[in-house]
Design a protein that fits this description.
GO terms for molecular function: kinase activity. With about 550 residues, the protein is an alpha+beta fold. The chain contains 22 helices and eleven strands. The chain is extended, with a radius of gyration of 34 Å.
Amino acid sequence: MWSNLTQSSARQREIFEVVLRNGWDYMRRLLTGGKTDEPKLPPPAVLRNIFVDLGPVYVKVGQLLSTRPDLLPQEYIDELTALQAEVPPVPWEDVEVTIRQQLRQPIEDVFATLNTEPVAAGSIAQTHRATLKNGQEVAVKVQRPGLEKIIEQDITLLTGLAELVSIAEFGDSYDLVALAEEFGTALRGELNFTEEGANGDKLRRNLAKSRWFDPTKVAIPEIYWNFTTEKLLVMEWVDGDPILLAKYDGMPGVDRVDQRKAIANLLTRVFFQQICLDGFFHADPHPGNLFYLRDGRVALIDCGMVGRMDPRTQQLLIEMLLAMVNLDAQRCSQLAIDMAGSTSKTVNVSNLESDYDRLLRRYYNMSLSELSFSQMFYEVLEVSRNNRLRMPANMGLCAKAIANLEGIARNLDPDYNFAEQIKPLMTDLFGRQLIGEAPLQGLLRTALDIKNLSLQSPRQFEVLLDRVTSESLIWNVAMKDVEALRRTVDSSANRLSFSILVGSLIMGAAVVSSQAAVSNVYYLSDILFAAASLIGLWLVISILRSGRLR
């Protein structure tokens, strides 16, 4: 456990110095052997400064944490959401080397033009605008050189710190090592641009058809796989502006206000389909990743961070959203326990329900126009966290995506209301779940099952009666923990038997002792007393060692 922290390196010293310099008292006590019952996070602004001082990799960790409202209070989420790596672009000479290594052919054979000045620079990569030989404009995303080594070092240190903190009482409630490994996997995924490209292709396929919106109004940049590698991503250039900076003049004859409302409604339906139908969603829809194009379409870019949901979690989430809209505290608490699964064994159900009731009562008298659904979702996750429920990680990603979506939609349409927007979608969704995609086929299949049951039932009933009358029916009954109960009863019976034996020996010794003067059998009385004492002493010791004296 200490191996990851005891290795001498300049990077480790730098991290410790930054953490201690920013005044994180908990880590100071932890590293000096002080009391560490419950970690005390630094204030949000201090935590943000720590990540900035530690450099681009920890800036990315902070950005990942900003997607986890199931782990941190909202004030931390808000502070970390604005976290951006203030890093200068990599010199073109180094970028060109990386591009040539990844292409394995002359740049001149692939690109007609390639702008040496980046259009964007981040902690992981920077993007250049280019034109292919066929005239197609593309965006070329290049990974910063030498990043893998730094990330592997920091992942190792992050895991070591998680192991250290998990010693404290706090580690009993949160699997910090698993969380560090999860972040490590996410960071490594950010380094593999082929995964980002595959995510984009999957989103494009999923959104190519819908009954809730016009798929032609949504664009996902196409990936040019002939030139894409783990460190180089070549994709279609989107000609537009960030969603909140666009002028919305791409649709002649349509009022600008109505157009903004239509875009807000479109985004809601697009993301509701991703989360509740496809189970695969863009997990970082901040304003910089959504573009309004010149032709009136909305483009989703940067698919490096996605969320996935299995059908069971999807169903629980849909029901949770409905319970929140209906302000049903009891249903919220039950669904939260179901989501947490095995980690909910020690939760106090009455306390959980009371907390949800107090939370939702604040919203009883609010009009829908005043209600912030993402705020409510954050608070629902916070109640779960305070009651030691470990919610699935995709719940945090979903809450963050909804928060970003609601914030963008309210900027586009001041009268926007998330609950009102999703109600008809949920009604349609529940209807589809009830009758299926093909009602006639489902009805015929059900009729066929009933027919088969009606044909088989008489024969099965005859077989059952035959077994009952011939006494060949065997019942297999399994009782949970019956073996432990049997051992407990046997142990109690044995102790009772020994207690009776000890009493009998003492009484026998007393009788023999009273007759000793006549029969001269003193030695027999002594033997009986010694046997009773030994058995009694053994019985007392066994009871004390069992820990069940009371």
